[in-house]
Structure formats: C-alpha cells, structure tokens
Amino acid sequence: MNLKIAVLPGDGIGPEVILQAKKALYAVGVVYEHDFLFEEALIGAIAIDKTGSALPEQTLNLCLNTDAVLLGAIGDPKYGTDAAANVRPEDGLLKLRKELGLFINIRPLKPFKGLLNVSPLKREIVEGVDFVIYRELTAGIYFGEKKLNEAETVASDLCEYTEEEISRITHLAFQSAQRRRKKVTLVDMANVLESSRLWRKVVKKISLEYSDVELDFLFANNAAKQIVRNPKQFDVVLTGNLFGDILSDEASVITGSIGVLPSVSLGENKVLFEPVHGSYPHAKGRNIANPFASILSVAMLLDHFGLKKEARKVLAGVEKAIEYNVVTIDLNPDSKFGTNEVGEFVSNFILNKDDLMYF
Ligand code: IPM
Ligand code: MN
Fold it and tell me: Which residues line ligand 1 (CB under 6 A)?
C-alpha cells in the first residue's frame, strides 16, 4: 500500500515521540512491503517561532493533500495563558481540526495486562476495563464566541451545539457500540446546561434507530467519579468537546500513564492520529518521554487503512516491551531505558531482529 503521511511533530516531547512512531512505521513498511511517504511540517509554538503562525498555510495544505496526519504534541509555556497573548500554539491544533473537519476524537481505554500494577487504582477496578471515549471535537465551548470586555473584568465563552453536530458523532458512537458491548453512555450536564439538554434530546431520538444498544446518561461530575470508581460499566462514552478532554485525561489513570494512550480524529474524509498526552515541556530533550502513545497511534493508523496484521504487530511490539520491562520511567521509576531505547526495541521487534538489543 502507498500512503502519504503528513508528520507534525510540534512542541515539547512531540518530536522525540514522533521519531519513534516513524521508526515503527518505517519498520512496518520494510517488513510488509508498503510505501509510506513522510512529509514533515510545522505546527504549534515552533511554527509561531519560525513563521509567526501556529498553523502555517503550507502545513494546512500538506494535511489537506495527504492520506493521514500524524501529530506529536502542541504547547509551550513561553506562550502564556494570559489574555494579552495574540498567538497561541493550541490555536494551531484547533484550527487544523476545524479545517480538516475532524469532528470526532476517539480515545480507547484498555489497560495492558502487564501494567495493571502501575495504575494507582486497585487491580479489581482496573482489570477488565475496556471502553472508548467519543469526544466531539470541532464545536462546543472550544469554538464558541469568546468575549473579553475592554477593562478585562468580564469574559465569556459560548458553548453552542447544533443538532447536526450532535447527530453525526452520535450515529458513529452507536455504530461503534453495536460492534462492541452495545452500550452508549452520554455524559453531559443536562441538569444545568441548555446545550446538554439538546444533546439528550438528539441522542435519545437517534437511539431509537439502534434498538440493540442500551443508552445510559450521566452528569459529568458523576462521570468523573465513576471513571475511577467503576470504569467497567462503560463501553462507549459519548460526550462534548470539553468534558471529553477532561475525562480522557482522568481516564488515563486507569492505564497507569497518559503516555500509553493513542487517539484518532475523524471527519468526512480526513484522519489524524495523535497521542492523548500533551507537550510535557519539562521532559523535552531528556529522553524520558513515553513513546508508546505515539507508536500506538501508528497502530491505529494501520488499522484504519485495513492493515490489520501490521497493526497487530505494532501492538505486539509494545506488549513485548512491557513484558521485558523496556519502558520509560513513567511506567517503571527504576527504568534505565529512555524514549529512544523503548522505540528502538519496538521497531526491532517489528523487524523481527533476533538479537533484541538488550537481551
Ligand atoms: C488534547 C489537548 C488539546 C485539547 C489542547 C492542546 C488544545 O489537550 O488534544 O487533548 O484540549 O483538545
Ligand atoms: Mn487533552
């Protein structure tokens, strides 16, 4: 298969973890005879530094003309979070999502067997968890009108959803549930927010078309508790942009580290893969960032394009690294292995090298 992939390493640890993801893809290409063509482009703080824009035209054009986008991370503390900032790294990612029409972000949560003891949660809570978060990605409070009065004493962000924006992700969530354990949990704040009440109405109506799928509702505050208290109840968690962002970071506690969570964002015809974690500026350049989330994003990419055995091989490489304890310090504080060594182990596994470097 020929695939042209836009690679956007971004900021912080982004370039380091993306390098390992590229190595895994390269290894898959060699072993299974695929042509993966990578083209790199700037986004985020590094793009602001070099071009003045968080999403340069060239980057957007590249992404519009490739089969897939592979993204590292966005964000740099030197661009503060104060009102005065007129360019923000995060705006690059938000604009990219909007321009590519990536209205849904899918984040699977399934702990690795070898990492059950890494989670701070009790083993009986974590073992057997298997759910997926369907987060709406191009609307809601992230994209509503923002206002700040002249005196900078009053500010607002509008949380707006249309029936169409709710319904397109809802259908995909129900279809996913049909392939899984047939349950959708809508997370909202319908006791307080008008936009949430619209979500409920639209989701309830659509649920009638999927009579084999059970529909459950949770207020976001309760969902935040249930995710660490009884996460096994979830199959497909359907929610808006902001709640989805917050709950997916929280859910990473189940797997032991946010460094193992991949994601895919989908639209009508575009697709983007990225780790759930952020740019982790403190770890930049220190060879300590966990590359698994990026490498597993590559497995999702392969799976998306129907390359099932290739995807399984990448996943098996990560499982093998965990089995041999070739992991970064977020998973094992005593580890002597860093980003490079862990990534190298996985790509060597994919290449079927017998002399697995460290053993
Ligand atoms: C994510 C990130 C982004 C988000 C930021 C960087 C804008 O946290 O992809 O989860 O909030 O969507
Ligand atoms: Mn996030």
Answer: 74-75, 90, 93, 245, 278
